[in-house]
Amino acid sequence: MTKYAAKNSELINPKTVLTEFESKQFLEPYGIPVVLKGLGKQLLHKTESRLVHLNLHDGASVEAAARDIEKNAGDKLEGFLVQPFVAGKRELVAGMFRDPQYGPVVMFGLGGIFTEALSDVSFRLAPLSESDVEDMVSEIHSKKLLGPFRGEAAVDQNLLIRTLMGISQAALDHPDVLEIDINPLLATAEGRPVAVDALVIKGEPQVQKTYTPPVDPRIVGGLFYPRSVAFVGASGRMGKWGYTLLTNTIGGGFIGEIYLVNPKGGTIAGRPVYQSVKDIPGRVDVAVVTVPASAVPDLIPEFKEKGIVNMLLIASGFAETGEDGTRKEKELVELARANGIYILGPNTMGICNPHINFYCTGSHVRPKRGSTSVVAQSGNMGNQLLAFAELQGIGIRGFSGSGNEAMITIEDYLDTFYVDPLTNTVMLYIESVKNGRRFFESAKKLSKEKPVILLKGGQTKAGNKAASSHTGALSSDYRVFNAVCKQAGIVKVEKPMELLDLSAAFSSLPLPRGKRVAIMTLGGGWGVVAADLCEAYGLEVPELNKEIIDIVNNILPPYWSRSNPIDLVGENDLSIPVTVMEALMKWDGCDAVINLGIVGRRHMVSRLADSVRISDPTCPEDFLKKVNHGLDDFEDKYIHHIVSLMETHQKPVLGVSMLKDEKDRTVYSVGDFKYKGLFFPTPEQAVISLSKMYEYYRFVCR
Length: 702
Prior knowledge:
It contains 22 helices and 30 strands.
């Protein structure tokens, strides 16, 4: 059994396996297969057990088949199912199982005896929409089989959609149905999908779990806008959390009131230390707690008396440590909830809000203010992402290391980002979710308004034990989670740096309204690589029209390629890329432009100047400086021009720099423009980002 079937079995005792005849009666099948089969609740995989005999033409062959089936089935045999024979070359599979986190999941893919071997299937959560079904069908690698195939008609898409949506509805109408398996779902020569074999497993409906209650977005948002902060467990020793968070908050320029609390009293960093929060003279909006886990419960009565409702609990020693820690965390949450106190954490690396210079994190990184909200279930990963964002010039709206999510969960953050006017892009690093169905619904709602970019840790493709049905055998955590992301419109990435790349792209550029890409390159090789990458990631590189060719003919030597990508053949005239960029942005034959090698040339010229200084003392220094300054000035104006064109034509422009140094960024803000200049180090980063943006655009436009 898969882990899904195994988890289900813990809740179901006993399970009821319907016979094929009963299963088909339950499903009201779209077609009846024409075969003789052994019938029995324990006879699940009939073909492997030699219980299926096809194309029987007379009484003698039927009698012989029946005897063979009786011999192979033994005492598990309950009867025979005789049906007319249906022929077809294409075997599909469809089904449903109940995931313990997300509920009913519908599956579709390549069927027959190769179902598990090839595992060419797709998943979506019920209830399905027609667009969900269309996506499922388009995702399988063998989708060409659904078109005209070896003299057989294309599969009837309407019937296929109706079949999968019927399975979805059956799952919703019958919570006692745990698994449905139709394999094969045969495509006849006329293209009609027919259920040749069916299996339905029933049992007691899954027991509803008790989930962490939702937290009002106003509460979550308030944590990031404190006017006063108390550091409970403040320390004067470098290396202690109570010192690191304090110095980062002060050093970051937070202008609110800061209070220090430690039973020892005295002073720290020249500031008075209160022995208890009750001694603080002013109001406290957020208490940052770094005391040991065992001392945290004793703070709750003091917090209530002082009127502190927000606790940023840095301390570890709770659920992340095992069963005893889980018990302590649960008791703390119950106590806090009874006293009207909200806990962010525990075991968190902190939070930040650059819009008010509030940097209360474990690492002294301070990205600039922006529109990308970040939540990371790993504090270290979160702080690394902030450091990269600071280095690359990506603006951050806010950051939270969500820790154990004892009270405030990833789902609460999603709901908060939905109503937050300053959040335009959401970036998540998660390893698990508390409430799978709520996560899906909140993410889908948010994604319709703002892109959600997600990296998941802890994924595994490890095989599972054989399940009681094909549908169950093909399921696994990562595949279901991937399906959830696709259905919810989440832009899922596989590498940490892709989070930053996509965040930079979504926060800097308009969405592409199609997949046609025009490429402009200073040299031919990069253009070829970019074009190949576009094809690999589902983008198109269209041929240039006559108007574009005529424009470029007037500014490039006669040996230019006259094709897309446009190779500028290394010309040094700085007006050429500007003219070509304008023409491509006006061209209605492309939806996005990638330019390679235009920005970053100043580094090459600077190195050339250094060599000239050494090798040719007769070359005037003023001339060398003038050349450098000229390229610096050009790049500033070129980026400004690109941003202006994006505002006018609403097409994204992605750049790839020839060279970068430590002073270069990925994102370049230009005045009061909505969009920004964007330049990656490699063509692959540009193409992947553009393909993901187009994928998201298609979701939004449904």
